[in-house]
Design brief:
It is built from 19 helices and eight strands. By secondary structure, it is of the alpha/beta class. The longest helix is centred in the middle third of the chain and has 47 residues.
Length: 415
């Protein structure tokens, strides 16, 4: 193994504070500009305990599998080595899907539905702290609309709602049940307008292409999974389907989405946490549109992790949560919750370590097929894929996408 592969392997195995600290000690020179967040079973020891389920059907799901979090960076490491106490800020953020965005927009209009009562109660529960609404995933999902000027009113009102909710008079809400904003309304409007303008500029200058490329990788993978389910139904064929998916990722994407393998395995074996994929059945109407929407949901899950790399002004560790009223999506987010992530000093996607057991998955799906393991799941196979990406960059998926769309349409009703 290379030093980086050895570090990643050790961090995947680390499940306690002591184990993570030992890994950090062994690789200290390499980790001086990095940060680690490790989740551990147990209750959150911090001041804010966010509820997982809201009474009206809302779900608040963490990017991390467990509530007890251990934070480590070079400063914390040095202080721990010296036996000194160390304090540092932690910021919790809540991103949301397009469905939840509609409730945010209606919240300040004092609408009285179960969903709006959920959001009110959440604000009251967190007080005197405040909720930090993260609009980036919502804006990413609506990148095309922002660039082309579609749905401007709804998008602007969503950003404005997030800005206004940052400054809600919670004491007034507690006494009267009605919303009142502490900040000047003009300031909120100005901030929302600037946010939308900056986002449109970034998307026009290439950020949209980045998100589109990531989404397209999710989309072709979802379509391939759906084809496998349609053409080879039955949980008894799950190992063959998963091996086919691994081969597809290797040959077409030149990388393996490890979390996707756990998602696929749950779906292929009839698990309960991937009911969101049940829409992708033979003869289902608008099959491609459903696959596209699910791909955005999956991208939400993956993108939420990058929020941990956002460094705010006070240097906080950032812990992302996701709010949705879609139970199937909430189950998917929970299934994909990570055990830990390593954040580099630069703004890169973090190295995420699954809470699931990769070796158990390989044992169940691949068994003792040593040739398959050598070709697709070995250290050498990983190095081969990495070398290909270093040389060629992200592969063009247009031909793969067109082929899969044709196949999926042929196996169902016209899209």
């Amino acid at each position: 193994m290379t030093p980086v592969q050895q570090l990643n392997y050790e961090l995947q195995l680390a499940s306690t504070e002591a184990e993570a600290f030992l890994v950090w000690t062994r690789h200290h020179d390499r980790l001086k500009d990095s940060s680690l967040i490790l989740s551990i079973p147990g209750r959150s020891p911090f001041g804010v305990r966010l509820p997982k389920r809201l009474g009206g059907g809302g779900r608040l799901v963490s990017a991390f599998a467990h509530a007890d979090l251990f934070f480590l960076n070079d400063h914390i490491y040095v202080e721990m080595q010296a036996g000194r106490e160390c304090t540092f800020p932690i910021t919790y953020t809540i991103s949301f899907d397009t469905n939840a965005a509609s409730y945010l927009r209606g919240l300040l209009e004092n609408r009285d539905t179960t969903a709006h009562r959920d959001l009110k109660n959440l604000l009251l529960h967190v007080y005197p702290h405040k909720l930090n609404w993260q609009v980036v995933p919502y804006l990413s999902e609506n990148a095309d609309a922002i660039v082309t000027g579609k749905h401007d009113k709804a998008i602007f009102e969503t950003i404005l709602a997030a800005e206004r909710l940052d400054n809600v008079d919670v004491e007034h809400l507690r006494r009267t049940g009605e919303f009142r904003v502490l900040d000047d309304e003009n300031h909120a409007v100005s901030r929302a307008a600037k946010r939308l303008s900056d986002t449109a500029r970034h998307f026009t200058n290439g950020t949209r292409d980045t998100f589109q490329g990531r989404w397209e990788a999710m989309y072709v993978t979802v379509m391939f999974m759906a084809l496998e389910q349609i053409q080879r139904p039955g949980a008894d064929r799950a190992p063959k389907k998963l091996k086919a998916l691994i081969k597809f990722m290797d040959e077409e994407l030149h990388c393996l989405f490890l979390e996707f393998l756990f998602v696929a395995w749950d779906w292929f074996t009839g698990g309960k946490q991937t009911s969101i994929f049940s829409k992708l059945q033979r003869n289902a109407p608008k099959l491609l549109a459903k696959a596209q929407n699910i791909s955005w949901d999956v991208l939400h899950v993956m993108q939420m992790r990058q929020e941990a790399t956002f460094i705010v002004k006070d240097g906080s560790f950032l812990v992302p949560f996701f709010l949705t009223f879609d139970q199937a999506l909430a189950d998917l987010v929970s299934l994909c919750a990570i055990k830990s992530c390593l954040i580099s000093g630069k703004f890169h996607y973090p190295m995420c370590f699954t809470n699931n057991d990769p070796e158990a998955l390989v044992s169940s799906a691949v068994g003792k097929d040593e040739e398959f393991i050598r070709r697709y799941l070995s250290v050498e196979a990983n190095a081969r894929r990495g070398a290909w990406l270093d040389q060629h960059g992200r592969p063009s998926l247009s031909p793969v996408r067109q082929k899969l769309e044709h196949e999926l349409t042929k196996n169902g009703l016209p899209a």
